[in-house]
Design a protein that fits this description.
The protein is α/β, with parallel strands linked by helices and 258 residues long. It is built from nine helices and nine strands. The strands form two sheets. It has a five-stranded mixed sheet, covered by helices on one side. Strands 2-3-1-4 form a four-stranded mixed sheet.
Length: 258
Amino acid sequence: MWELSISVDSKNFEVARFIYQNIKAQTAEFGGVVTCYEEFERIFVLLACPEQEKARVTNFVERCVIKVICNFYKESFLSENLHLPLHENMTVTAFKKALINFDKETDFYLISKNLDLQKNLYLDSFYSFKLRPLREKWAELVALANENSDYLVSSDAFFDLLKFLIDNLEIGEEEINVFEDEKGYSIKTEREEDGLKCKELSKEGLVSSLIELCPKKINLFCRSDDNTAVFLSKIFDERVNVCYDKNIEKVDKFSVLK
């Protein structure tokens, strides 16, 4: 059996849970056994699998670790270092999410070339000591935003920059459908044959998910009094197709506010 231990500081509980759930789900069919425990203010995720499945399972684990650093650790870095002018919550959420996904391919490369899965991976130490070039790259992006914070006080300028960032993200989906009901928003992609990819999302959760998915086309089925369509149209522009009452006929993207 091939064995691996991944540990994080106890304060990073969400990181540990994400790693545990993803590795467990992805490796089960290859005979992987995953467990988790907490000791000495650290959370340990333990994995064991047949030796002949090591290469395949290692690939899953590497992708999971890279995703954790590019999302959880980068979001924490941005929250600590980014100083933006005051804007409403949904706009700030969208801006941070766009920065998280900006130039993700380079982030992936910098992490993967330093990642060597042996018997133990101390994730916080790996991030702190092995990924200095990655944090320097993030710091350059943050410094650029902070240096132009006076310019970004203007709502129009802020949206122009946000739209620029989103326009330069890699397309992740060809077309997705977004449905609104009394519980919130749900997303269905072309690859979801049954069920929905995300359910009961808040407005902030919807915007964050759409930036993560970065689709080429968004069909938004919403209530006539919903202003989310205007916000999404500002940042995704012509990609957004607004529809009434699950009717796929295209309507003016700003008519939902009339």
